[in-house]
């Protein structure tokens, strides 16, 4: 009886450890190595910004600096209230749309030696490998919004998550019916 209970306990311990290992491996694979994960999307968009001449001009670089190349920007998730806090995660929200595809909205900051820009994007995951960027914008104080991808149209998220949309306030149409 004593040996049987030890075998049962150690078997359950091995099963729980194997399950925890599988869950951890899945999370690492989907977030870091997946092309549609938050980390991969973040890195891809930062590289796009570093290669876009208009973005670099908005961030305060001169034409001669842009021609020399090799410009590296600081990119991070959020502003910190103090100088000692680092590595604030990127703000990203994932949700399933009415089209049964996974949508991701992300916001992060890019910083040059001269100024800071706010990057907003929306991506739609077509499948585990393919991801389509709907729009990528950069906002720098004192300049107009610059669209790297997409345009000033309403995205899926802006249309469907806006409480003041054409569907009425919070999805309820108030007032008289207009034909």
UniProtKB/TrEMBL annotation:
Key word Transmembrane present: yes
Lineage: superkingdom: Eukaryota
Keywords: Membrane, Mitochondrion, Mitochondrion inner membrane, Protein transport, Transit peptide, Translocation, Transmembrane, Transmembrane helix, Transport
Gene Ontology cellular component terms for the protein in this record: TIM23 mitochondrial import inner membrane translocase complex
Subcellular location: Mitochondrion inner membrane; Mitochondrion membrane
A biological process term (GO) from this entry: protein import into mitochondrial matrix
Topological type in the membrane: Single-pass membrane protein
InterPro entries given in the database record: Tim21, Tim21_IMS_sf
PANTHER family: MITOCHONDRIAL IMPORT INNER MEMBRANE TRANSLOCASE SUBUNIT TIM21
Subunit structure and binding partners: Component of the TIM23 complex.
Role of this protein: Essential component of the TIM23 complex, a complex that mediates the translocation of transit peptide-containing proteins across the mitochondrial inner membrane.
Similarity-based family: Belongs to the TIM21 family.
Protein name: Mitochondrial import inner membrane translocase subunit Tim21
Species this chain originates from: Pichia membranifaciens NRRL Y-2026
Lineage: Eukaryota, Fungi, Dikarya, Ascomycota, Saccharomycotina
């Amino acid at each position: 009886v004593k040996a049987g209970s030890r075998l049962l306990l150690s078997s359950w311990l091995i099963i729980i450890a194997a399950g925890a290992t599988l869950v951890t491996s899945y999370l690492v694979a989907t977030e870091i190595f997946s092309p549609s994960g938050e980390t991969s999307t973040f890195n891809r968009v930062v590289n796009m910004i570093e290669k876009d001449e208009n973005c670099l001009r908005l961030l305060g670089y001169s034409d001669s600096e842009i021609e020399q190349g090799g410009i590296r920007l600081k990119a991070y998730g959020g502003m910190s209230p103090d100088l000692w806090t680092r590595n604030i995660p990127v703000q990203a929200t994932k949700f399933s749309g009415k089209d049964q595809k996974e949508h991701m909205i992300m916001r992060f900051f890019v910083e040059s030696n001269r100024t800071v820009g706010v990057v907003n994007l929306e991506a739609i995951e077509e499948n585990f490998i393919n991801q389509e960027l709907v729009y990528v914008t950069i906002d720098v104080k004192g300049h107009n919004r610059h669209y790297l991808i997409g345009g000033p149209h309403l995205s899926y998220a802006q249309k469907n998550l806006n409480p003041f949309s054409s569907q009425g306030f919070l999805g309820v149409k108030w007032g008289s019916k207009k034909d």
